[in-house]
Each structure stands twice: as structure tokens, then as C-alpha cells.
Amino acid sequence: MRVLAIESSCDESAVAILDEARGLIAHEIYSQVELHRAYGGVVPELASRDHVRKLLPLVRRVLEQAGQAPQSLSGVAYTAGPGLIGALLTGAALGRSLAYAWNIPAVAVHHLEGHLLAPLLEVPAPPFPHVALLVSGGHTQLIAVEGVGRYRILGDTRDDAAGEAFDKTAKLLDLPYPGGPELARLAAAGTAGAFHFPRPMLDRPGLEFSFSGLKTAVQHAVRGRALDDRLRADVARAVQEAIVQTLAVKAGRALEQTGMDTLVVSGGVSANLSLRAALAVAAARRGARVYYPRIEFCTDNAAMIAVAGLLRLRAGISAGLAITARAQWPIESLAPVPMQAAHDTTEGFSN
Ligand code: KG4
Ligand code: ZN
To answer: For a substitution probing ligand 1, which of 166, 168, 186, 304 has the most ligand atoms within 8 Å of its CB?
Structure first.
């Protein structure tokens, strides 16, 4: 089985081809970062227009790279939500139409299921069941993953997502968009203990998060002061520490609460090296092992959409002829993929 996948939920246009036996045989990502930088964030209409321009040439290039004719594909997977509705619709329209033209099934993929399954592209692939910490620009969730399509949310954010907290505090420090990686880079030069920001909800039991208070704390810290490099680095370091410590403590609690010994971390913020170090400690303390996608597949990409799409197609799940996308789509509402099909995935799709 060989699947071509399309991702267009936000500001990355991406296409990949995944072969069940050979692993990932081609993938391309085009980032729109330059396009949105002048506006300090993603402009949805510009994102949609750019996906329309970029996706089809990317499909051609990936087919060429893989040395495959469309006739050799078993299906087309596309991100159908959650995300920016206009951006999603460009990929859904293209994916659904290509599948129709090529006379093969199409499968609508949940973007976050893609993130959750991205580590199946690595060696070794994480075993099921496991606890997943999903930390992206829009989501911060701890999820009990019983199998493919069997997700139970253990904890969610009440307001801002972890990536959003990185991005918004970075903006307060006048860092260019996207702020998360910039803030992380700056934090490395900061002085430990120069600032201390609140670790919200850490003193309460539960696995809920809240990150919106960080913006106010940072605003107070920099008010009336010149934003020089020293101050920026010190604040960046304290912001990163507050977010990282909160995530690590709650991830540790989730392992304890579920009795599971595998932690899977994915989404854009999982590229953060300070977070990886803290999670390694939290997991080791509980005898658990941590799995990540490679850095390149932490942020949005089509390889992860291909994994989710292939697993669903293999289980006989496919989309109807209508072109549909959903801005909101609870991950708990997904159809479970039968265990037999899911079981094979412990071997993953690495090449
Ligand atoms: O998963 P993703 O690419 O897109 C969404 O689905 O949201 O995540 C993007 C988020 C952004 O908020 C970005 O600032 C953050 O991930 N991010 C990071 C790092 N790399 C990306 N945050 C902190 N440290 C990083 N190294
Ligand atoms: Zn994402």
C-alpha cells in the first residue's frame, strides 16, 4: 500500500508519499513564514491563496522524487481539520479531486492524529498504549492513546496553548514571527533566576493547563524598561522554564495516573530542546521511556498525515465524494482503527 498525503491546515504546504513496506519515499514542505512575517502572525486568506499556488507543484515534485506514477498509489490522504478552514479546504479539494481523477480512495485525516502518529516514522516506534503530550501552536493536551483512533483526553489547556504562550510572549519581546523557536534560541543566553514567572495550576491536582497568565507576567516584567538583549534573554529563559516545568510535571503526573510507561511527545513545541531534557528527567524518574518524531516532523508536515492516512485506509476507512473540512474536530470523536490493523504499527514505517 502506498499513500500520497497533503497537509495545508495552517501555514505549511506539504506533500509526502509513504509506502507500507519501504517507509517514507518522498516528502516536501514549503513554509509560508516569509509571507506572514510582515503581519506578525498567520493571515488566513493569504495562507489559503498560497496553498492554492504551491500544493499542486509539490504533488508533481514528490511524485517525481519518488519515481512513481499516480497509478501506483493506493490512496490520497489529506488533512481535513482542525485548522484554518480556508487553508484546509484547499488541501481537501485537491486531495479529494486527485483521488477521484486517479480512481483511488481518499481519506480525511485529523491533523492532531497525524502529530500523535508521527513518531511511527522513527526507530524504534513507540508501543501502544501510551501517554501522549501534544504541544502545538493551537493545542496542549495530555492524551491516553489506547490504540490508533482510541484517544482519551486526560488534560487540556483552559486558555492559551503552550506554543501560543511561546509566540505571544515572544511578541512582547519584539521577536520576529514565529516567536517560539526565536524565544528558545534567546533563552540559551539568559541568566538563570533573573526572573521567575508563575507555573499555573501546578499546585492543584489534575492535568489541566493554563498559560494565558504568562503574558501579563511578562508585560509586568518589561514595563518601563529598555528591551535590550540582556533583558530579552533573561525574560526568554524564565518564560521557557515556566512552560517547560509545567509541561514536565503534568506529563509525569499523567504517567503515574495511567500507570503507563511510555510517553510520546509531538507537535511544534516538542522541537524545544529544553523541554526534551526536562521530560527525559520526569520520565526516567518513573521508569518510563520517551519517544519523539525527528525535529523536522515535530512541526507541520505531510509525512505524519500519510501515516494516519495509511493506517486508516488499511483498515478500510475512506472518505465519501464530498469535499469536507472542519475548523473544529474533537479528537475523541474519531473512529477507532481495529486493533489488528493498529497492532502492526508497533513496527512503524521507518526506512
Ligand atoms: O505543530 P505546529 O507546527 O503547528 C500547529 O499545529 O500549531 O506548532 C507550531 C508551534 C508554534 O507555536 C511555534 O512557536 C512552536 O510550535 N515551536 C516551538 C519551537 N519550535 C516550534 N516552541 C518552542 N520551542 C521551539 N523550538
Ligand atoms: Zn500542527
So the answer is: 166
